[in-house]
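Work Package 3 (structural annotation) set out to generate three-dimensional models for the target panel prioritized at the project kickoff. During this period the team completed the workflow that converts sequence records into discrete structure tokens, so that structures can be stored uniformly alongside our sequence database. As a representative example, we reproduce one entry of 141 residues exactly as it appears in the project archive.
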Amino acid sequence: MLNKAIVLGRLTKDPEMRYTQSGTAVTTFTLAVDRRTTNQQGERETDFLPIVVFGKTAESSAQYLSKGKQAAVEGRIQVRNYENKEGRRVYVTEIVAENVQFLSGGNTQGNQSNGNTGYPSNSDSPFSGKPIDISDDDLPF
């Protein structure tokens, strides 16, 4: 069995961090991810994907990410359910992140969160928004 999700998008609002009763950091945020195809009106549609991050990665995500910043998330898709105040069963589908890469510039100090505190600079990242000079000879197709 395989359950793997890799998404790249922009945060719709600042991340929210809290702690579980056992003291584990949990950060949640939503990524806006454009679909590759267009609808019948020729417009691209966007999916808004809820992301959940735990531990040191959650703390780093809350510190370095903010609304509008671009991030790549690698994790697994999880479906959970609970009973709301009205007694109805509510199902929630979310991505539980195992790895978060910070791709936007600004005042971030790095581009990847894996529990370490010293992050490399992301100024040379292909996702930094800077143009990349690639000749046709370098393309495999």
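Residues 106-127 have pLDDT under 50 and may be disordered.
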